[in-house]
Design a protein that fits this description.
185 residues; 2 domains; 3-stranded antiparallel beta sheet; 3-stranded mixed beta sheet; 8 helices; elongated
Length: 185
């Protein structure tokens, strides 16, 4: 686990004064602010892993990465880049979204998988969260089919999760799952 992503508050708690943090985060400095209250202790552009760590640090306790980024971190290859990092946060938490993050509150936290220190939604929930937000029907079908064929989840598991979750925004995903089930018979 890397320590190059850190919350400003945690750095201050170790005794680093705010003015030193501000000085090091100036343009051309050795550090950078990647999200409000979250620093990267490097001037290089953040890697995907660093972006995920920063997102989890920003979202706080109980948050998990879901969607395409969670699937990619669990080993599913060939996925398109997600325009934003999708995170689930407890319903009582109200962190604001940024241009880089989609924070969705949930009363049904998913099962969590930890990979390289990253808290990720289990594959069944992650693929359904991604599919619900995919506007293109063929890409939605490909996403579901790829996840099932890879063995990360089953059609039965997807059906159970879909039935347990919110019905909002799930009609197209339900239709894609019915089509996939018919094709795999």
């Amino acid at each position: 686990m890397t320590t190059d992503v850190i919350k400003t508050a945690d750095l201050e708690a170790t005794g680093v004064p705010r003015h030193v943090i501000d000085l090091k985060c100036r343009p051309g400095g050795p550090w950078q602010r990647v999200l409000p209250g979250v620093l990267l202790l490097s001037a290089a552009p953040p890697s995907r892993d660093q972006r995920l760590r920063a997102a989890l640090a920003y979202a706080g306790p109980g948050a998990v990465v879901t969607g395409v980024e969670a699937l990619r971190a669990q080993g599913l290859p060939g996925l398109p880049d997600a325009p934003v990092i999708h995170l689930l946060q407890p319903a009582a938490r109200r962190r604001a979204c940024t241009t880089e993050l989609l924070l969705e509150r949930t009363t049904r936290p998913p099962g969590t998988v930890v990979r390289a220190g990253l808290r990720l939604a289990e594959p069944t929930r992650a693929v359904l969260d991604a599919a619900r937000r995919e506007p293109h029907a063929l890409r939605r079908h490909h996403l579901l089919a790829t996840t099932v064929r890879s063995g990360l989840c089953t059609i039965a598991g997807l059906e159970v999760e879909l039935a347990a979750g919110s019905k909002r925004g799930s009609a197209a995903t339900r239709a894609a799952l019915r089509t996939l089930k018919a094709l795999l018979r």
